[in-house]
Amino acid sequence: MRLRTHIVVGSVLGFWVGGPLGGALGAFASAVPDVDLDAGSVGRGAQTLGALAAAGGALGGYLLRSSEVSAVGLGAGFLLWMLVRLPHRGPTHSLAMACLWSLLGALLLRDPGLAGAWAAGYLSHLLLDALTPRGIPWLWPFSRQRLRLARWRTGSLWDRGILWLSGLAGLGLLSWRLLGG
Fold this sequence. Notes:
Layout: H1 3-31, H2 41-64, H3 67-84, H4 95-109, H5 112-129, H6 157-178
């Protein structure tokens, strides 16, 4: 599926689970599995963020004389550098990575609604990509076999239909919330 479809579906699910901030977290989380696309906008953003994290960690550690700050910055930069180099629709498109992502959200956010939105956005990406002919490796690292739920091509009428239906559902949900639902 296209990135815009992932983001709209993730934001609607996130908004449903965690309100307006949940919508933003769901949108962000829905793009994360494509960090392994080094040529894509998500991968380029991760590379930039990784470089900034490494540089910030090194500089912050030096200025604050803190090896912990340096370690966190350099570690985050290295992790993002590694994720960008993974094969597309590999480990980042697995239930194992979805569990790690959800655990990270629960630890960082400490709010069930926001952590749920964080997890829902990531899982929505996996479900949408499972609808494409290539499928995804749900059970990685135990199996590299790809699960396909359908054979809908990226950019197809199905992709556009999901985008539009999700957008309409989001508008309906927003209207319902604004009217006191």
